[in-house]
Amino acid sequence: MEILGLYNYWVFAILLLIGLYAVITKPNFTKKLIGLNIFQAAIFLLYISMDKVDGGTAPIIPHGAAKDIIYSNPVPQVLILTAIVVGISTTALGLALVVRIREAYGTIEEDKVISMDRDQ
């Protein structure tokens, strides 16, 4: 395998780094949530990339099938579906918390919220 032929892993690495950068460096809570979603999308891409089996078919075994058939594993797709639901729930909860922080502090900037907490 050629290193440039694995472009999906390069995209995974770039998305992962962009999401991690946004989560760590951005002071705005909404931007942190967007970074978290980018990070999650990179993980989804990694699982889907690892699931690809060259020449693999759906794991449906017909009666009298040959034993040398290559099947794809369906478990990563199930894990991705579960992870998407958890990601949406996490995003919804995060946005609800951002709204409550905005109501309580008047801002969604992390450093301002922390300084207001220290002053109290």
From TrEMBL:
Membrane topology label: Multi-pass membrane protein
Q: Which UniProt keywords apply?
A: Cell membrane, Membrane, Transmembrane, Transmembrane helix
Q: Where are the transmembrane segments?
A: 6-24, 33-50, 78-99
Q: Where is it mostly found?
A: membrane
Signal peptide positions (record):
none
One Pfam family name is: Oxidored_q2
Where it sits in the cell: the answer is:
Cell membrane
Identify one Gene Ontology CC term for this UniProt entry: plasma membrane
Membrane in keyword set: yes
Q: Which domain of life is it from?
A: Bacteria
Q: What PANTHER family does its record include?
A: ANTIPORTER SUBUNIT MNHC2-RELATED
Q: Which family does it belong to?
A: Belongs to the CPA3 antiporters (TC 2.A.63) subunit C family.
Which NCBIfam families does this one have? PRK07375.1-6, PRK07375.2-3
The identity of this protein, by name, is Na+/H+ antiporter subunit C
**Species name for this entry?**
Iodidimonas gelatinilytica
